[in-house]
Amino acid sequence: MLVLTEAAAEVVKSVTSTPQTPDETGLRIVSSTPEPKDPGALQVTAAAGPGENDQVIEAAGARVFLEPQAAAYLDDKVLDAQLDEQGKAHFMLGEQDADQI
Predict the structure, then answer these.
(1) In the CATH scheme, what is the code of domain 3-88?
(2) Burial class (CB in 10 A: 0-12, 13-18, 19+), 90
(3) Phi, psi (5° rounding) for residue 12?
């Protein structure tokens, strides 16, 4: 299952937590191809809630929704993130090691 770093959880919360969004809002990751082979095939957007078959990951108050193809690709990955000087989120993927599983 996808693991979020503390930094990623904070960025997800900052992207999805505004006074106008419902409490269930999270980051949704979907694949643009049936079997993604690299991160370029993934699309990330804020979503009011998970899709019908989405896997829901909660970490440190952050919610991430993974559609099935994205969940399969991200199963052994770690999501990290940071905000740049303009406040734009940048997400990075890494491989899980035995200590994170």
Answers:
(1) 2.60.300.12
(2) exposed
(3) -60, -45
Residue whose C-alpha is closest to residue 91's, from 11, 2, 3 = 11
In contact, 37 and 6? CB cutoff 8 Å: no
Contact 67, 53 (CB under 8 A): yes
Helix (H) or strand (E) holding 43: strand 42-47
46-95 confidence digits (pLDDT tens) = 999 999 999 999 999 999 999 999 999 999 999 999 999 998 999 999 99
Which pTM does this prediction carry? 0.88
CB 89 within 8 A of CB 83: yes
